[in-house]
Amino acid sequence: MRSKFYLLAFFSLLLISCEKENVALPETLLYAKRGENAGIYDQQGRFVILRGVNYNALGDYWQANPAVPTNKQYDEEDLKLMASYGVNCIRLLFSWSKLEPVRGQYNQEYISQLKTVIEAAAKYNIYVMLDMHQDAFSKFIFSTADENCQNPLNGWDGAPDWAVITDNQPTCMSSTGGVGGRESSRAVVHAWQNFWNNKNGIQDACVLAWKALVKETAQYANVVGYDLLNEPSLGYEPINIESDKLSKFYRKTINAIRVAEQEVNVFKHIMFFEMSVSWNGQGIPFIPAPEFTEDDNIVFAPHHYFESISYLLTIEQGLELLYGLSDAYKTATFIGEFGFFGNPAVDVEKYKRFAQKEDANFSSSTWWQWAQAPGDPHAISWDGTQFENTSMHLIELDKNGNFTGNKNEFYLNVLSRSRPNAIHGKPTKLISNPESGTMELQAKASEPGTTILWIPGKFGRPVISGVNILSSTQIDAHTGYLITVNVKENYTIKINF
């Protein structure tokens, strides 16, 4: 099945939320392996599963209406609430436009804001992936009334204005319009082509911005790594040429980050890389070549929006395809974005199917997204007159961008299901039931070791059974349990209540 979808694609720590000071943070440095045992590992050699959310509090978005906020501002209470649902990783969005508003000058205030979130996340034992986020290239590309567009373009987020080179191409979208049509704007396509061509050195500047940010953040042990570029898009050239340029950009950026790490004498972080935004919507496989880098500390981090934005494939087929691509890259899979479903009461069944498949493949993921403010370009009309008053992702915000207190328990219950955080040996089976809290984990090991579990507390105190279990300890965590299980050889752990 995987090989079938792989061909189709090419040719068409242990971090548990805990607020109690007596719960010590384990060794947190994580790294990735490629090859037969591809995965994310901790310093004890345990296989790590990261599950969490995208967090956009520090994103720099186009604002259609000055009275309507584009995002929920950062609040440490967000991280505390995430931790209560067992979140052990956030994909922290940042904007190049805010990092480098003036060419060659990096915004220290903004960097300090990012550090504040990273430091607070560490308090709740949450890993942070830093994501250079963009959509439709930049917030500085948008339609104006005098263009008379049938389908005017919202501005979005990404590059600073000095890096936007559209050569006065029209901003109007194609007849598809909406979120799915934003990449069809000739101005957006033109800006991307100039980026891939490194016109005026703007791509080099992007790489240098990464280097500057890494020097400021790489010392934090809970910074798991860097997502090099969110949802890169196409220019005008054939796919093979564009993919080659994407490969070169990734390789250049990875090399620059490695130099930055050496200059500040810190450990090597995981490099997360993506395929294009065009795959989910249009089936265009704009991806780097499998051999684009020799760096072993990398993870394939695609996005999955099948049965939400796109119906090209089912949820299961989409995941099989992405796992097949990971096999081609010889890396672990981290689904950087997924979700964007409709009615939670109905579409929670889709999430359960996604969860079952990702558990079976021991993959990591971050849900899109923690919260969506009414002025977010996803939610507001081009002219700023219509917006979602109570846009709902995992928490609900009012028209002023403030948390209403309402939580999307349908999806949160699936996100917070029982799971291993760190697995001794090679995992072979994982089944977790979000409705009952029960879980079964099997793994192969040649010597004794410890496996760490997160179990939500709403089902009561867990009962542990299985095969080759030597002992276990439970720590009451933040609305759940952090369980250390001492195991030997090939073992099975079962959780019941």
Key structural traits:
497 residues, alpha/beta, TIM Barrel, eight-stranded parallel sheet, seven-stranded antiparallel sheet, globular, disordered N terminus
Write structural notes for this entry.
There is one protein chain. The protein has 497 residues and is an alpha/beta fold. The chain has two domains: 2-416, Glycosidases (TIM Barrel, Alpha-Beta Barrel); 418-497. 27% of the residues lie in helices and 23% in strands. The chain has eleven helices and 21 strands. The protein has helices at residues 2-11, 76-84, 96-99, 108-123, 186-196, 202-217, 239-263, 278-282, 315-329, 344-360, 409-415, and strands spanning 31-33, 39-41, 47-48, 51-55, 89-94, 127-132, 223-227, 270-273, 298-300, 303-304, 334-335, 337-338, 364-367, 395-397, 403-407, 419-423, 426-432, 439-444, 449-456, 463-477, 480-496. The strands form five sheets. Strands 9-8-7-6-5-4-13-11 form an eight-stranded parallel sheet. Strands 3, 16, 17, 18, 19, 20 and 21 form a seven-stranded antiparallel sheet that branches. Strands 1-2 form a two-stranded antiparallel sheet. Helix 2 links the parallel strand 4 and strand 5. The radius of gyration is 22 Å and the shape is globular. Mean pLDDT is 92; it is low at 1-27.
CATH class of the largest domain: Alpha Beta
The number of distinct helices, counting runs of at least 4 residues, comes to: 11
Low-confidence spans: pLDDT under 50, at least 5 residues? 1-27
Question: What would CATH call the architecture of the largest domain?
Answer: Alpha-Beta Barrel
What coarse outline follows from CA principal-axis ratios? globular
Mean pLDDT: 92
CATH topology of the largest domain: TIM Barrel
SSE-based structural type: alpha/beta
Q: In what order do the strands lie side by side in the largest sheet?
A: 9-8-7-6-5-4-13-11
Q: Write down how many β-strands occur, each being a DSSP E stretch of 2 or more residues.
A: 21
Radius of gyration: 22 Å
Percent strand: 15-25%
